[in-house]
Specification:
Chain lengths: 286, 434
């Protein structure tokens, strides 16, 4: 906030207010969730009917957690790669910051997740889908195919927005710098290496973090698209946890599982924080 | 900045406080949650008649299956009275009843003379409105379901003749056995090798969860001989379970590969389109769809008594939904009156005519209903011979275990004996046979 006021003076006040409000609401949401999870976790542990390790290591839970981490990892990695590539492509075509592209890129975000899932099913269902003749009959029943399909369909909604993020990093270069880069480096590859890539990589931790969380927390979308695969082999953690609460009626168990999920997610969060810090360290900007 | 934060916190407290202090507890409308189905749509259309008759306003909310369950559970967890009446799947009722979520039906709320409970099909009435068996009444049956066999005579007849079989009839004595069914399915599927456009031998609903277990339960009881085990709803799985899993895996080889992700609708759709030639566990609640003109484009469809098992009886799996009164309701009498009205002879018969499934004997002898849905002529026999999934609160989790183990057998990942043992171990560990 200090930097905000340093740049914009009193004009920063409304922006700062909105930022504070967003922070308060976010923290309130986090605290409310923890206020629900922690007492149920403590209660379940105290009852000692079933050990924490037994709950955490239930093969069904581990499978669901692995599936979510797979989807999150592949989705975030692919999105980083593709958004970088497309942003550089837009730069090469001198279309960085084009408002029409930005507008089109934001439009898929209006599609609700469950609609995207249904649309994906309409396209890729091996029996009645539009592309039924082109896809494997196992596409929804094979674990890895179903999970990969989830990543592929999810791209349609989120990749355009991530391209905007990546492109905005290049577009943030002011006009004289961008023009100078074109003059100094007739080879686009060299310009990428020395000018554009250093700008894009600063924003990559943000893109990676956002898409990792988007991939991990998938719910209605995956349910509509794959129905959890054959024998729940492609079930994601969010759906498994939901079923533990609403089908098995074991809220305490779901709370215990949530604690593990939080601990596991701390790892990529730490990676992103350190990566982001390294991006902003003075030596990396040279 | 501190002033801004303090102001925000104050506003949040005021809003939350206003909600809890000033919100009105008084409820005037009866709130009803229904599962999205033809029977529910038909009921919703008739609600104005109830309102005119009784002066009780009714607010109906139509929900998809998973969302309906989730909303009912939210009501239980928060102990708030969103719904007075809920339409509950048969497999949810034991859990709701055990947790004290249901109110006993007030049968005295019925004001139109004596209520004809005797007309209800007793097995359905018990399964969809009471817990435990012959226990307290929490509501009324509303939407019934069981299995029957659907098949395409022009595809099946020549194959059956080759095997020396007559076409299956509408009683246990004229039905095929499960082995007959598998043999015919194998031959039909084998013909696809030289003629890929020909149908598969059988349709399945092998989607993990309620779908695959609803179907497999019917197969399971085909291998159970002891009457006591049949009545208990949860047989010993090492014998019959092993055989049933192996059988089902063999049946899967005669079905489309993608049947592993099929539910009721896809299974029925495959029959309608002619992709499959037979379905041993066709859902009666969806059978009306098979009478549509577009389903006859691939040839006629006939209905029969489902395959019989070791004890010479069929084992169609009973399902359906009951209309139940919730414990949180502050209008139990009004809710009871609505439930009794919805299941009453006149109203429910009109619902059946619009695509609902029968719950009363009188509906099964009604000329108009039988003309529209001829397969209902042997429905009472099917209901009498039906088996049912174990009426235990932890059924949903057992269903999860069975789904996973059975699917792994179908995919060739483990033998049926190992899978059946895993399920039996889980049942014993969790004391589900008490």
């Amino acid at each position: 906030m200090t930097k905000l006021f340093a740049f914009y003076g009193k004009n920063a006040r409304p922006i700062a207010t909105i930022c504070w409000l967003a922070l308060i609401v976010s923290f309130a949401g986090v605290l409310a969730s923890l206020a629900f999870i922690i007492p149920h976790f403590v209660n379940t542990v105290a009852r000692a009917d079933v050990g924490v390790a037994e709950i955490w290591l239930d093969p069904r839970h581990i499978q669901a957690l692995t599936n979510s981490l797979f989807v999150a990892g592949i989705f975030s990695g692919s999105t980083c790669l593709l958004s970088t590539g497309v942003a550089l492509g837009l730069r090469a075509l001198r279309m960085s910051g084009d408002w029409r592209i930005y507008l089109m890129s934001v439009t898929p975000l209006l599609i609700p997740d469950y609609v995207l899932g249904v649309a994906g099913r309409v396209m890729f269902d091996p029996t009645i889908g539009v592309l039924a003749d082109l896809v494997s009959k196992d596409i929804l029943s094979s674990r890895w195919m179903a999970l990969t399909l989830s990543v592929f369909v999810l791209m349609f909604k989120w990749l355009p927005a991530m391209i905007v993020f990546a492109d905005s990093a290049i577009y943030a270069l002011n006009r004289p710098e961008a023009d100078q880069a074109s003059l100094d480096f007739p080879s686009f590859g060299r310009a990428v290496k020395l000018v554009y890539w250093p700008e894009i990589r600063v924003i990559l931790p943000l893109i990676w973090a956002m898409t990792f969380l988007i991939g991990f927390r998938l719910h209605e979308f995956s349910q509509e698209l794959t129905a959890g695969g054959a024998g729940f082999n492609a079930e994601l953690w969010s759906i498994w946890n939901y079923r533990v609460v609403f089908e098995f009626v074991q809220v305490g168990r779901a709370a215990v599982e949530s604690v593990l999920a939080i601990l596991v997610l701390l790892i990529p969060i730490q990676i992103v924080l350190r990566w982001s810090a390294s991006m902003h360290a003075p030596s990396t900007r040279n | 900045m501190r002033k801004v934060i303090s102001a925000c916190v104050l506003v949040i407290f005021l809003v939350v406080g206003w909600y809890f202090v000033f919100r009105t507890e008084e409820k005037k409308d009866l709130s009803v949650a229904l599962f999205q189905a033809p029977a529910s749509l038909a009921l919703a259309e008739l609600v104005p008649e109830f309102e005119a008759q009784t002066g009780i306003k009714v607010a109906v909310e139509m929900l998809p299956y998973a969302e309906l369950r989730a909303k009912i559970e939210q009501q239980l967890v928060s102990n708030s009275g969103n719904y007075d009446v809920v339409m509950a799947d048969s497999i949810w009722i034991p859990s709701f009843a055990e947790r004290g979520a249901l109110a006993e039906l007030d049968v005295n709320s019925w004001k139109n003379g004596a209520y004809d409970f005797d007309d209800l099909l007793p097995e359905l009435d018990d399964y969809l409105s009471k817990f435990p068996k012959n226990g307290k009444r929490y509501g009324m049956p509303f939407m019934s379901n069981t299995h029957m066999m659907a098949y395409r005579p022009d595809v099946v007849a020549p194959v059956a003749a080759e095997l020396g079989l007559k076409l299956p009839g509408t009683s246990a004595s004229t039905a095929w056995t499960w082995q007959n069914y598998l043999d015919v399915a194998r031959r039909i599927t084998a013909a696809k090798k030289d003629h890929p456009q020909r149908p598969f031998g059988t349709s399945l609903q092998a989607r993990a969860g309620a779908w695959i277990v609803y179907e497999w339960n019917s197969v399971l009881f085909g291998f159970v001989e002891a009457k006591a085990e049949r009545n208990a709803g949860l047989p010993m799985l090492l014998g019959a379970g092993n055989e049933a899993m192996a059988y089902y895996a063999s049946l899967y080889k005669q079905a489309p590969q993608e049947a592993l992700t099929w539910g009721h609708e896809e299974e029925t759709s495959a029959m309608c389109s002619g992709q499959t030639a037979m379905d041993a566990t066709s859902n009666v609640e969806l059978a009306a769809n098979l009478l549509r003109k577009e389903c006859r484009a691939a040839g006629p469809i006939a209905f029969a008594y489902p395959p019989t098992g070791k004890n010479g009886k069929g084992s169609p799996d009973m399902g359906g939904f009951g209309l139940l009164v919730t414990k949180q309701s502050t209008m139990v009498s009004a809710a009871s009156r609505f439930v009794l009205w919805a299941a009453s002879r006149d109203i429910h018969t009109r619902i059946v005519m619009k695509g609902g499934s029968p719950i009363r004997r009188s509906q099964l002898t009604n000329k108009d209903i039988l003309e529209k849905f001829p397969y209902l002529s042997f429905y009472e026999k099917l209901i009498k011979d039906s088996v049912y999934r174990a009426r235990i609160p932890r059924w949903p989790e057992l269903e999860d275990i069975i789904s996973r183990e059975l699917t792994s057998v179908m995919q060739g990942q483990k033998p049926a004996s190992v899978a059946a043992q895993s399920v039996e171990d889980w049942v014993v560990k969790n004391n589900l046979r008490q």
